[in-house]
Amino acid sequence: MSDTTINADPAELAKFSELAHRWWDPDSEFRPLHQINPLRLQWIQSHVPLSGLRVLDVGCGGGILSDSMARQGANVLGIDLAGKALKVAQLHALEAGTPNVRYREVSAEALAAEEPAGFDVVTCMEMLEHVPDPASVVRACGELVKPGGWVFISTINRNPKSFLFAIVGAEYVLNLLPRGTHEFAKFLRPSELAAHCRAAGLDLHGTRGMEYNPLTRRYWLSADTSVNYLIATRKA
Question: Which family is it part of (predicted)?
Answer without folding.
Answer: Belongs to the methyltransferase superfamily. UbiG/COQ3 family.
